[in-house]
Write a structure and sequence with these properties.
binds protoporphyrin IX containing FE; mainly alpha; 175 residues
Length: 175
């Protein structure tokens, strides 16, 4: 009927972490000058990003070992599916992939900048490291994927009038 409870929990936890990490990246880290005051938001961003890596790998492992909700009823008379529905499943896979790439490129950047070697260090310019541009570009792609994912939900929920969130929410046990 719906995703495994652990997947539902991890889905919402990762969504929360990804939004927070994104917001810190775009609205705090990018506008801030590279000085020691930046250490706190930078490390909050990095620890959240590493948490996302663990959650996403765990999610994907659980996902391939559990059943997906069955909702495809083949109807030969059904209308052709709109593009946003055809794209939904590939977009979900790409979300896993690009979330992992996001965390890995961030970790690579932190290694290049020597942030793990000296936890008090702040480089003069993050753009001196090639992975800074890679991390920034991947963040744009991830953003587009999240928008597409949300549009699928909007389509089901508001245009088709289905309770699409039910797949990704918990069910109260009947007494
Ligand atoms: C950063 C944010 C998000 C990411 C990375 C993400 C990722 C994913 C992935 C990978 C799946 C496929 C399920 C699986 O295979 O485990 C999924 C399913 C789903 N997500 Fe999200 N999600 C995010 C945010 C949201 C938000 C904000 C909503 C609500 C509006 C939402 C609603 C859903 C629903 C309803 C499903 C089930 C879709 C189906 O099976 O047809 N997601 N999500
Ligand atoms: C899914 C996880 C992550 C997301 C969504 C994310 C998102 C972002 C975003 C949006 C930016 C600003 C990019 C721009 O606008 O050009 C950024 C910068 C950055 N991120 Fe991440 N990030 C993640 C994981 C990580 C990890 C794991 C690390 C390190 C361990 C990291 C380290 C950095 C650094 C060092 C910067 C550059 C800050 C600056 O230029 O001042 N990120 N990240």
């Amino acid at each position: 009927m719906r995703y495994h409870a652990s997947l539902i929990l991890l889905h919402w936890l990762s969504a929360l972490f990804i939004f927070a990490t994104f917001l810190i990246g775009v609205f705090v880290l990018v506008p801030m000058p590279d000085n020691p005051v930046k250490l706190l938001p930078l490390w909050a961003h990095m620890l959240l990003g590493l948490g996302i890596l663990i959650i996403t790998v765990a999610r994907y492992t659980i996902r391939v070992r559990t059943l997906k909700p069955l909702r495809k009823v083949k109807n030969p008379l059904a209308k052709k599916k709109p593009l946003i529905v055809t794209m939904a499943e590939p977009v979900q896979l790409l979300l896993y992939l690009f979330t992992i790439l996001m965390s890995l490129s961030g970790t690579g950047l932190a290694l290049q900048a020597g942030l793990f070697a000296d936890t008090q260090a702040i480089p003069a310019d993050f753009y001196a490291f090639p992975l800074r541009t890679v991390h920034g570009t991947i963040s744009t792609i991830l953003f587009v994927l999240i928008v597409l994912h949300l549009l699928t939900w909007v389509y089901y929920q508001f245009l088709r009038g289905e309770n699409a969130l039910a797949w990704m929410w918990f069910r109260r046990r009947k007494p």
